[in-house]
Amino acid sequence: MLWRATGKILQTLMVLQIVSVVSFTLLKLAPGDPIQIMLGTEYSPEAYASLVKQLGLDRPVVEQYVRWLGNFVIGDWGVSYVSKAPIFQFAFVEALPVTLTLAASALGLAILVGVPLGVLSATRKGSSWDNITAVFTLAGTSFPSFYLGILLIWLFGVKLGLFPTMGFVPPWQDFWGGVAHMTLPAVTLSIYFLAMIVRMTRANLVEALEQPYIAAARARGEPQWRVVWVHGLRNILMPLVTIIGLQLGALLQGAVLTETVFSLPGVGQMITNAVLNREYGIVQAGVMITACLFITTNLLVDLAYPYLDPRLRPR
Amino acid sequence: MVDLAAQAPLAGRERRTGVFWAYARSNVYVLFAAAVVAMFVLSAAFAPLVAPYPPLQQDMTSFMSPPLFEGHLLGTDSFGRDLLSRTIYGARYALAIGFGAVLIGACGGLVVGMAAGLSGGTTEWALMRFIDALLALPSLIMAIAFISILGQGVDKVILAVGVALIGPFSRTVRADVLQVKAQAFVEAAGLMGVKRLAIVWRHILPNVIFPLAVQATIRVSYAVLVSSGLSFLGIGVAPPTPDWGLMIAEGRSFVSFAPWIAGVPGTALAILLIALSVVGDGVRERFDPKLRKPG
Amino acid sequence: MKPMSLAATGAATSLPEALERHVEPAPHKAALLTVEDLSLMRGDSLILDNVSFMLRRGATLGLVGESGAGKSTIALALIGLLRPPEVGLAGRICLEQAGDVTNATEAAWLKLRGRRVTMIFQDASAALNPCFTIGRQIMTPLRRVLGLGRTAARARAIELLESVGLNDAPSRLAAYPHQLSGGMQQRVMIAIALSSNPDLLLADEPTSALDVTIQAQIIRLIMDETRRRAASCIFVLHDLALASQCCDDIVVLYGGQVVETGPSRVVLSEPLHPYTQALKACVLELETEDLQPLPSGAPSFASRAPGCRFAPRCARALDKCASVKPMLIETRGRQLACWNPA
Fold it and tell me: Taking the model in full, what pTM does it have?
């Protein structure tokens, strides 16, 4: 099993490598001359030349890539043209935790609410509850999240005045303030996942409950609730985790949009502003962060499989 | 053998719905949704005839007026532009971008997927990692990255979203190619001496194109969502284009006292997306052979 | 376990031989289970039509018939897994000390299932939960039903596994079902089913999914263990030869109707119902020279179809067979439902 894990990790590194190449190419393809932007409107040819040399832009492309990659790995992501602050600082240290908090809250909410709802739908298959849930899940997976956020702002923030509608308060500094500020964004982001999880739980559970081991468990005298929640649920853990893993990209994507709606200073907002300001270094950093996040979580999901389904363990 | 497990249903409420009614009912929804989509398509196509006002016409005397007020059925925005007209023209952009992006993504995915599925050895492995890399980025973020290079505008949005869709499409195409390749008739053709290219053209391609078309139909709503998202973020189409995402963003600042400015385009977008999803689901249920349950 | 030759297990190798070596029924003659006119409807189909039979304490009963005859349905109804409102039940199922359980509530059934009435399923690999260890699947009922503590349950589990013939029990406890062979999985199922010392064990085709050489071992195991505990056993089988080896009494089912029932020695040595005769003729002996297959056709389960369901395929059918259902009448030492027996 260790062998398999090592193989997977190596494969992941390979993919990350390709992503980094693509990222680097992106930077190179970006229009505009970074030297010009950094030097401003008036500069001498000598200043230009010396800056080029300083940044190593006169070296061959491959060498530039290697240098960039090396810098990236140790945390030197360059400096913002606009604010002159190191990108690593505000990208990784400040923006990433915001996005992670949002994503984790949304996912947690979706799982905690979605799985029970899915179980309920599966055990009451064909009832009106099930049908209504089906309608809501369909709407939930296709509703535009940014519009949903605005609707929630209008309803809960403006009309009812229950929750703050913008800004981020770190929960590790002010827990309840953080929760209050995170409620509407987390709910907005979680709706898509909630709908997806309810659907998947229901579909997989219905199938699992038709299996002979469920009838056998009942024949042993296990009560209904145990049969569903212990036997049934345990067996759908693997397909469920697979789906969640596949949808993590949608989570990050939704986070970008949600951050903008609620003015949360996360990676999404950072990238968007960077595009408008032509700060390609920041765009690149954002792309790398997102890709790394996504690839790593997929790797973790992959490695978790043998624990979720004993049949996949080596004999 | 008697299916034992299926004979022992759960104690609990399993209401029996007649099979016929369930079929008819689900089909009704799909048909209704298709009608809604058709309505959007038609009004988009005939926008100049249907819309009461030109979409860019400003009228500062009646700016930010609510719906059903003074000749503006759905109200006006902060520049006095009629929202109904802008929404109708917005359908044009949404659908054009959606279909255009899916077209680019499907074609690109076809090429990459076929290459990955038909090659073997190291080439296949390298292409697979390449596809993995493409899939490592969510579509929106990849589109953002491309927009940063290409700049803003409708055509650039179509291109960016299209390229971002190549990853997902190539994965499905590759899976289909592998499945067809494994079938006996392909092997038989090869054994009979049919040239490889002819096999690809005559046997593999037709069996891949059809599922691809089904996938493309399903992904249109996703493309519309991503492109609206881009415009909402302010890095998609440029103002004053009547794009729904852009309109929602513009209306966001006024949500406390003029919620219809964001509400009208938002509702239109939501309705179109839901309708496209339902149609997509219906298409998939009908045509995707993998989903057909036995019996 | 070393595979044993069929003869060495003590199994009979032909039907006549099996009939010679019938097993003496246990001394208790009291009825453990009485089924009277049990009918079961599912949707528009009448799956069981006035099924009646009786099971004595300590005896073994075989439910024999083709696929779809309703044998498994009876077993599921007897353990309460097929109940209203999913199906319609009419008639009576009477279990000693529990009374009429036909319309018992789920709460009442929970007191019986896994305690007094247990069941073994056909495909042990599908009937064991693939995500839980064998140990957990054995010990959970021991702890929940018998109230044993963890160490006591583990000790008892090891005892049980050894009693069903599994060596190296401690490591089996930690294994997952897919790591065991089919025969071993079925032994585990038997161990679980017998752990509560049930009064009634239902065995639904326990060996159909196993190799022939293992079949005899498993059947012997079930019989020895139930005898040891003075429990009754109902075997659902489609194999007449197997039924003759291990069952004291036999119920022959066709299309949800009981056609003939009685002591297996009596019924099988001299079958009176055309269907039973045909079944017997189909049994492959080692010296069989010509096969006598039944004409093809499946019974109709339409609820309003009157008469004997075997009539369309019966060579001895009379006109009234299709329109009037024959009753079970005591005839020559067994119960027979036929207008025109041989």
Answer: 0.82
